[in-house]
Amino acid sequence: MHSKWQLWDFFSVQNRELLKNHEGVLGLSTFDPICLKLAKDFLTRGLGDAPLHYKMAAEINRNWIEHEFLTLNLFGNSESFFVHQAQDLAPDLVELLAGAGVSGRFVLLSFENELAGWKKLVKEGKVRTIGIEAPKFWETAKLLDFICAHLRLPLAHEAKSWILDSLENNLAAFYNAACLIKLNHPDAREVSSIEVRELLTLERLDQFQLASLFARKKFPEFFDKLVALEGGFDKVRGFFMFMQSHLVKMVDPSYLAQKSRLTQYDKELQSTARLWKEAELIREVERFNGWEILCKKKDSQIWHLVKDAALRSHTSSFAIR
Fold first, then answer.
1. Beta strand ranges found along the chain (DSSP E)
2. What's the pTM?
3. What are the pLDDT digits (tens) for 85-100?
């Protein structure tokens, strides 16, 4: 039997006693290490003092399976096993475990990707399998709500909005941020946006949003967001490469007339290109190219140049160079 769960639905009362009431082999698929940690902590908490041993797939071989499950043990055995990286098990070992008739205890096979081994296990249906699915890209607010509820972290609405706008929208980023906030505000009735921003730094780079700000000559907003990313050489190098491509397209957007249907990005290019002279765009391409080279060298001078540009963008003396 196979069942699929959304992360926030998996942590239900019925699943808390899952391992306590299960005997035999059970397959579990999780979509990232934090998901695995949360699921493992939740499932094993319901076991109480029942003996459980952890093993890596590399430690599992035919001799171990035969000795542990297929050989008569006069003293009996109540030990259960949690096997990590089960996707690395050879197919014949999975088959042997599935047919071993494990009784009075369980073997949980933790698959940490959904490649051939997991798909084969689900398709054959010889053992019970449970898959926890990754949130869809439009479910990030729900994911953050789940993390806050799971950790009992009372974030203000404005604080949640800031996190969604400023951090990478994935489970690891949300969980690590929430743990840090909880550590610093363990007894807070509500954690404000100001308190959150004191602990976290901007790490999400929305290159289309930034490119739009720059193309519309909203330089203060553009550079303020860029300065907040200090330290991420590889991330901003990729952005500087994108900016060069974006500005080159703005130099001559006439190619868009050949497209039967324009995307929102295409329309943005057309409208903002009118705000610039060709010479201005060429100079900016050269500037971003120079910044890309500094990032490639991991030269910290890049941050001084970005900060200088940010300061000038807030004064009347700022001008496109």
1. 2-6, 24-29, 52-56, 80-84, 106-111, 128-133
2. 0.68
3. 999 999 999 999 988 8
